[in-house]
Amino acid sequence: MFIGWDWATETHDVTVMDNSGARVDRWELAHTEQGIEATLKRLRRLGSPADLPVAIETTRGLVVDRLLAAGHPVVPVHPNAFHAMRPRWGASKAKTDAGDSHKLADYLRTDGHQLRRLVPTDPRTLELQALTRQRADHIEMRVAAVNQLDAQLDQLWPGGKAVFADRDSDIALEFLDRYPTPQAAAKLTPAKLETWCKRRGYSGKRSGKVLVERMRSAPTAASRLGEAAVATLIRVQVQLVRGIRATIRELDKAIGDAVEAHPYAPLLATMPRIGKVNLGQIIGEIGPILERAESCEQFISEAGVVPVTRASGKSRAVTFRVATNRRARIAITTFADNSRHGSDWAAKIYTDARARKKRHPHAVRILARAWLRVIWACWRDGVCYDPVTHQSNSKIKAASETARAA
Predict the structure, then answer these.
(1) Rounded to 5 degrees, what are φ and ψ at 317?
(2) In which order are the strands placed within the sheet that holds 23-30?
(3) Which DSSP letter does residue 270 get?
(4) Which of the residues 29, 67, 299, 344 has an alpha carbon 20 to 30 A from that of 117?
């Protein structure tokens, strides 16, 4: 039997179809615990969950997680692909929830053998994925908060911005917290500033005289706000940056602990220039792709580092792959770019690509493809990364595609 699940935020519609295309059952359910649990029980009465695949227009979410946990094979259907198939069931392309669930079930019945199925990912991999994704979000928030601090200093106190070049550093934030206004720093002398910097381990190699000259020579702001208001605005923004920096440090520690406990980590931990955070990103984003890929080439394609070829008749175009897992591509290309500074093998692949007139991003993706073959070989054979074994050439021998993890 085949199941089509048309999902929404408040209600869902489910259709069950047999091998001949006849409708066996259909019902609507509310997006509540009672509705979902009743539906799962109703499906269990029709047979074993493993024999009841479900087609749905999403790859994630509560419904997908519950279906996978219940043992149903979940077949994600891209909404654009499903929309393109609508003329199969009528030229009008009519759309109703009940009709969509029926069409999804029928599409699964006729074309399900060509569609990939979701499989439950190792919970440890999901934890790493969630931690590294939240860290990436916090990095973006930190950049935005520092940029906002810069903008405030431009408007309220350019002299405070001129003292230390890096507003994201501990000493710059502490300085702005201690001296948030021109009036607070008016009596600051080169000797006092130099002593203050030494106590805090300042390593910028700038004397107190130079730092004070920077502050004094900066233009004066035209703001008409009072000193108390300026101090509040600067200090609050400094506290925001500090708070985000603290959450990033906490996430870094959690990622490090999660990486230590993950079974894939020993396979890849010895790769050149791969830190704990980047290793966590690769395991969290590349790991699920690695587990479901049936071949090395499929693995590389889903990681998003191969181009897309479109050929028809006399036309042929090779273009950048846009529709892919962006986070997975960022994780592997970040590592690939770093690895060329710690591996002669990686540096040669990158240099050769640049010699062929490839731009830097393209050359990095070429190097990333080579590293993905290495990762596939390590995972397939259950062998930790070894430069002698895995860098003999840029293409890892793939005689056996039976994948297994250590």
Answers:
(1) -135, 135
(2) 23-30, 11-17, 2-6, 54-56, 74-76
(3) T
(4) 29
Q: Which CATH architecture has domain 2-114?
A: 2-Layer Sandwich (3.30)
Pick from 225, 243, 238, 230: which is nearest to 148 by CA? 238
The rounded distance, in Å, linking the Cα atoms of 295 and 299 is 6
Where exactly are the structural domains of the chain?
Answer: 2-114, 126-256, 265-390
Tokens of 222: 């035209």
Q: Which amino acid is at 202?
A: Y
pTM, two decimals, is 0.78
Specify the CATH number of the domain 126-256.
1.10.287
401 pLDDT above the threshold of 70: no
| Strands (E) located in 267-373 | 308-312, 315-319
What's the whole-number mean pLDDT along residues 37-50? 92
DSSP string, 64-102: HHHHHHHT--EEE--HHHHHHHGGGG-TT----HHHHHH
Residues in the chain: 406
Question: Is a pLDDT exceeding 90 seen at residue 254?
Answer: yes
pLDDT at 370 over 90: yes
DSSP annotation of 182: T
Question: 210 exposed, middle or buried (CB, 10 Å; 0-12, 13-18, 19+)?
Answer: middle
pLDDT higher than 60, residue 178:
yes
Q: Which residues share a beta bridge with 281?
A: none
Per-position b or e across 256-291, b if 16+ CB within 10 A of its CB: eebbeebebbebbeebbebebbbbbbbbbbbbbbbb
